[in-house]
Amino acid sequence: MKLGSVGLALVLAASAATLAVGRAWAAPPETRGWLGDELPLPLAVRTPQDLAVKAAAEKQYLIFNLLAGGKLAWDTSNFAAAASKWEALLRVPALDPEIERVIRPLARDARARAGGQSAVSAAEVAAGAAAAAGSAPAAHDAAAAIPPLPTTVSVSGTVSGGGAQGPGGAVVWLKRAGGETPRPAPARGKVITQRNKAFLPHVLVVPVGSKVVFRNEDPIFHNIFSLTKPNEFDTGLYKEGASYTQTFKHPGAVQLLCNIHASMLGFVVVVDTPYYAQADAAGAFTIRGVPPGEYQIEVWHENASQSTVQRLAVGADGARVALRIGGDRRPPQFLPDKSGKPRQSHLGY
Questions:
Q1: What does CATH list as the number for 153-325?
Q2: Under a CB-based contact definition with an 8 Å cutoff, are residues 253 and 228 in contact?
Q3: Which pairs from 162-167 meet CB under 8 Å and 24+ separation?
Q4: What pLDDT score was predicted for residue 116?
């Protein structure tokens, strides 16, 4: 295949840019000035061919800038910035399918980890798309041509019911109706303390894949366990000051017990969504970072034999909803031991 003058110029420009990028990447972080909003290599424009080369180079620099900028943001746990840059990259016209294949799942994961918060404006996306197309329309024209980045809103409301205990501790979560719910990022630093022969907190909600530390602050031994499949586990005996870490890999409500103290009861509620919250003592809750759309909202409470499920439309202004949970479930008179057999409370212990 023969290259014309423009094609040869494109190849030479790309080669030079590749070498420059390689040298810059090897340099210390403080000298990496090539990653920014302005093309670091000035290109003269004297002929139509020069203009074509400059437009192509600017498009490739835009692609690289969004690609690498998103990765640097990801590496510093700035997931909102990573998601916004990669989402802008996916809007570049005629993007290489291989780049799209690699970046699309990463952008989705970054958006989920960020809780929906956006860090790049729609104007920046519009300007990038205009540069990628080889033109520079007016700002209002670009903004009209490119859809804005997804915005997020809050879903708030109240839960009532829960029997004599009331709605406090109810867990509320959202999943997309008829679509794929983003994968949640595991929570960090979650601890359930054993103090005065009780679980603190009594109910803990975590996303799938989260690690929970069980820490004994009593001057006695504990043996925490659960028979709830497929999240069953057994810490074994551990003394004051010791801890045990359990990873919860499956969604569902996990009942927590102690094989030594029959009065101890608690729950870990594992959800497969980044959109969740726990109601306060009055039943109020707020779920932040929710993209507008159609959802299924679900409520769990330890005193309800079934969770409450209903459809919810989340608009551009968010949504507010009143939910009611049952209170028909009574705690068992005798909690089971590790073999699943009922046992009476340990008197005086």
A1: 2.60.40.420
A2: yes
A3: 162/283, 162/301, 162/303, 162/304, 162/325, 162/327, 163/303, 163/326, 163/327, 163/328, 163/329, 164/303, 164/327, 165/302, 165/303, 165/327, 166/281, 166/283, 167/279, 167/282, 167/283, 167/301, 167/325
A4: 56
The tokens of 109 are what? 């994961």
Length in residues, the chain: 349
Of the two residues 120 and 222, the one the predictor is more confident about is 222
Instruction: Give the separation between CA 116 and CA 291, rounded to whole angstroms.
Output: 7
Task: Confirm if 278 and 243 have CB atoms less than 8 A apart.
Answer: no
What are the domain boundaries of the chain?
5-145, 153-325
CA distances from 51 to 8, 37, 56, 63, 137 (A): 14, 19, 9, 18, 16
Please state, in angstroms and rounded to a whole number, the distance separating the CA atoms of residues 287 and 279.
Answer: 10
Q: How far apart are CA 108 and CA 179, in angstroms?
A: 14
Please tell me the predicted confidence (pLDDT) of residue 203.
97
- Is the model's pTM score more than 0.85? no
Question: Per DSSP, what are the bridge partners of residue 205?
Answer: 269
**Residue 141 CB partners (closer than 8 Å, separation 6+):** none
Residue 244 has pLDDT above 70, yes or no: yes
